Amino acid sequence: MSASSPAGLAAGRSVDPARYALGGRAPKLALRPTDRDEVSEALKVAGREGLAVVPWGAGVALAHEPAPPRYDLALDLSALDRIVEYDPEDLTLTAECGVTIAALRETLAAHRQELPLEAAHASRGTLGGLLSADASGSRRLRFGAPHDRILGARFALADGTRVRSGGKVVKNVAGYATHRLLCGSRGGLAAIIEASLKLAPAPEERVALCFDADAALLSDAARWTWLPRLEPSFASVVGPSAAAALPPAALGGTAFTVIVGLEDDRTWVTEQESAVIRALGPPRSRLGGDQVVSLAQSLADLEEREGPRLTFTAAGNTPAALARILGLAGSGRLVFHAPAGRLHLFPEPAELAGCAIAAAEAGFTLRAARGAVHPHQGQPPRAGVLALRGRIRAALDPTGAFALGERWAAGAL
């Protein structure tokens, strides 16, 4: 395979490699196949030529990653964008990996259904990217992550072999759940071609309550005892700097913003809303309907802002879990989804290592790091998990053709 004439594919499938740079490094080649056969052929040829491959969607999250040691071919899968099968009665859908999240939402909304996962920048973010990042946003605890909602997948291995795992319906439990292993692998194990997913009916009522909160309120555990007893779809804390990117109706002053989202039947939402107001007082603003959908999307978009990012899990599932880190550098730019215990911090580059260590000392577990810090900074490596990842990678990609596989196996993705 050469840069001027990719063997085995029509020349018209070549695209500008500069669009697929990682860490400032563009690949030698970039291809945009239009069907699964061309995906397989591209991988087969790349394997024969010994090229290191990175599968791409829209690059919403991937574009922020550093360059791997070897990066020869970007495989753009965004042209595989068909909805293959949709059964509203069974609440299941099968679609190719290049379909955008916005296109899925539009199709499902016509039947009062949804895929309750938030991917950043949904107008261009793809299903494959959402699965590869295992991204789900603020509603992760209530509705699950992608690895919870995926029923099956078709994917291509490094030698071009196409594999199917799982099925298209909930009751299909035959075989190994390899499709779930691909969620969160960032394209480091295989190229996802198609996926089948569990859907959910749209709720009868949506409400979001927005409150101003200072450090004293956030740290007061007694003020948040109600939260685990209710069933909010999300309860998120946004730092004052990060809150500037929220919709105007949710904006506040210089304090932290607490947003409680309620989605359910109308009677239960009303009861929950009353309980929240009894605990926190009248909200600064109240949003309903599609405004709540837009707000949840904005919270997801905040997670993919440019620059360094540290992602943690917390044992505590109320805003009081933040008590020991509110003075950290970058806390003004934090996003914390309390019920799911998922924290994103956005410190300056020089503050990364210090923030990672301080947050670990405060009880947070570092899950992912973007920037000049090792993902295990401030805590010991999980030797058993890393050994298992190494075996999985060796089984699915024995030649190491997928360029990001080494970082996935090392726990750096």
Structural description of this entry:
The model is unreliable at 1-5 (pLDDT under 50). The protein has 12 helices and 18 strands. Strands 14-11-13-12-16-17-15-18 form an 8-stranded antiparallel sheet, with helices on both faces. It has a 5-stranded antiparallel sheet with strand order 4-5-9-7-8. It is of the alpha+beta class and 413 residues long. The longest helix has 15 residues, at 266-280. The protein is globular, with a radius of gyration of 22 Å. The two termini are 29 Å apart. The protein has helices at 36-49, 101-109, 127-133, 140-143, 146-149, 178-182, 215-219, 266-280, 290-302, 352-361, 383-396, 405-409, and strands at 29-31, 53-56, 73-76, 83-87, 92-96, 113-114, 150-156, 162-166, 191-198, 200-201, 205-213, 234-238, 256-264, 285-288, 309-313, 335-337, 342-345, 365-370. Strand 4 (83-87) and strand 5 form a beta hairpin. It has 2 domains: 1-202 and 380-413, Uridine Diphospho-n-acetylenolpyruvylglucosamine Reductase, domain 3; 205-370, Vanillyl-alcohol Oxidase, Chain A, domain 3.
CATH topology of the largest domain: Uridine Diphospho-n-acetylenolpyruvylglucosamine Reductase, domain 3
In total, the number of strands is 18
- Low-confidence sequence ranges: 1-5
CATH architecture of the largest domain: 2-Layer Sandwich
- Which radius of gyration do the C-alpha atoms yield? 22 Å
Give the ordered list of helices and strands. Answer: EHEEEEHEHHHEEHEEEHEEHEHEEEHEHH
Oligomer state of the chains in this structure? single chain
Can you give keywords for this protein?
8-stranded antiparallel β-sheet, 12 helices, 25% helix, globular, 5-stranded antiparallel β-sheet, Uridine Diphospho-n-acetylenolpyruvylglucosamine Reductase, domain 3, single chain, 2 domains, 413 residues, 22% strand, disordered N terminus, Vanillyl-alcohol Oxidase, Chain A, domain 3, alpha+beta
